[in-house]
Amino acid sequence: MVAPGNTRLRLETMRLTALFGGHRAVHDVSLLFPAHTVTAIIGPSGCGKSTLLRCLNRMHELTPGASVVGEVLLDNLNVYAPDVNPVELRRRVGMVFQRPTPFPTMSIYDNVAAGLKVNGKRPRRELDDAVSRALQQAALWDEVKDRLHTSALALSGGQQQRLCIARAVAPEPEILLLDEPTASLDPAGTQRIEELCHLLKRLYTIVIVTHNMQQAARVSDYTAFMYLGRLIEVGRTEEIFTKPKVEQTEAYITGRFG
Amino acid sequence: MSRAFGRHLTSRIMTILIIILSFTAVLALVLILGNLLIKGASSLDWAFFTKSPVPAGQTGGGVANAIVGTGIIVGLGALIGVPIGVGAGIYLAEYGSGRLGFLVRFIADVLNGTPSIVIGIVGWTFLVKPMGRFSALAGSVTLAILMVPMLARTTEEMVRLVPHSLREAALALGYPRWRTSLRIVARTALSGIVTGCLVGIARIAGETAPLLFTALGNLNFSVSIGQPMQTLSLQIYVYATGPFDEWHRLAWASALVLMGLVLIISLAARWVTRERYGGAR
Question: Is the entire prediction scored with pTM above 0.90?
Fold first, then answer.
């Protein structure tokens, strides 16, 4: 597999603050996500890690009363600039959620093709290729290739989540955001998704939010620890987990709070 | 020991009570259907479905004009009412959190509670009077007015049942808001919306009062929507209140046909919501 597009692509937040009404869920976070790496965001519940993730593809602003101060730079372009269309942005920044969300009225094929079709009509042949490529990337192809036109709801939870990954990568985004993607999966399903992270980072820049510290240690190159909306520490994963510089980080990863 | 026995006894008694009550509820339907069958079925013949009424006092004739009229008036009413009602419902569920949504919802609820005869008078005032004559079109529009608030509210309920996570998934995939609403959310709620429409159609098919002021009724066969037209409900009203035994006989038969029609529509609604894909609601 060869990385498409700009290998020096950068995703970066600059003094990003996210609010729900008057409540600051994310406070003044500046964070760089290097290209073709997996960055894990960890921290206790309510620390703002999911909100931070949702700021990256402008999903945060869809919540009534939500607002953002600061910048998110994608290739040095502020995604919150007035001339940026959030719909276009979301085609460049794919997202997978906590629970699998296959579209219930669509077949497996149509689910994967959904993000492609919304970009305009394509020849059938091209669509077929893109769907099979996306399913292969999500390591689901062998399991579903004989029943592409059956309901996506017949798949198991783990398969559905991989289908959602296939759906997210089918339009060939540059960034892939994973919001606790294994929270509702069994250990086998979790393992498959983690293996996928290793494969997919060659193609995409991945940001994963997780509750599970072992998971962060297993899948990520960089780890950011957040607490009460603030970024406490960020660094190479092995350093964060072996010799954290900040007391709070050490307390959290050794299980003394959180 | 005795306490456990007491609980079992209470459970038993309540179960039996509930069974009796449900049978009582079903009994009403059975009595109505049975009565209609006994008094109406014997009059159902080929002429009943194919002939128009004959002059009063003569025997024979049918209600073909009313059957066709019901189809035209209700069909046209649904054609006008369904897009508006369903559209309003999707709006209320997807964008109706503001002041306008509150207002629309409130008005729909008030309209839903308005007696249909009042809607009929409205139809007469704003359609029949300016047009200078009673017409099937005025009847259809009046039925559509009855239908819209009903559909708006049921559609809203159905669309609201779609999990929020599906909306987010579509938006995160780069769907524009309106496309998310139509292609994903409304599509997912479609079987519920269609059921709501069919129930609404069944409901207006049985309406009489609003049509008395608008479509008026017509003892001759007519398919012109600019002219008065007969429906089964109007036919029943005229025949049942008339002095002739022959008319009463036809009224029973018409009632049976109308009831059958509503039953078929209701069954269609059930068929639409049947489980597909093994449990997709």
Answer: no
